[in-house]
Amino acid sequence: MSGELRTWPVIRQSRPGCSPNTGPRVVGVAYRLLGSLSDAEDVAQETWLRWAEVPLREVMNPRAYLVRIGTRLALNRLRQLSRAEGELRRAVVARTR
């Protein structure tokens, strides 16, 4: 979580409307979905990058926006991991035949 904690204050300073506990909340949501702290931190980093690019006038509730984006990115990551696991299983089965 150290990478997320270093990055979060920088973005928070440049983007008003977020509380200090929003960053750990995004990591926590992603961790609960993914079960991996490193994957959760990666999702949080991607969330911050997207947050830095969105026009503030389009976001009514920054905290909800960040949690929603983090959740969607975590679900996307979960699908990618599942797909990769399926491909690995098929490769192993193909080699054992």
Sum this structure up briefly.
With 97 residues, the protein is mostly helical. 80% of the residues lie in helices and 0% in strands. The model is unreliable at 1-7 (pLDDT under 50).
Report on the structure:
There is one protein chain. The chain has helices at residues 2-14, 22-34, 37-53, 62-96. It is mainly α and 97 residues long. The longest helix has 35 residues, at 62-96. It starts with a helix and ends with a helix. The model is unreliable at 1-7 (pLDDT under 50).
Cα distance spanning the termini: 43 Å
Number of distinct beta strands: 0
Contiguous uncertain segments of 5+ residues? 1-7
Q: Pairing-aware structural class of the strands and helices?
A: mainly alpha
Instruction: Tell me about the largest β-sheet.
Output: none
Question: Outline, from the CA principal axes?
Answer: elongated
Q: Approximately how much beta-strand content do the residues carry?
A: under 5%
Per DSSP, the total helix count is 4
The proportion of residues forming helix, as a percent range, comes to over 70%
Descriptive labels:
disordered N terminus, mainly alpha, elongated, 97 residues, 4 helices
Secondary-structure map with pairings?
Elements: H1 2-14, H2 22-34, H3 37-53, H4 62-96
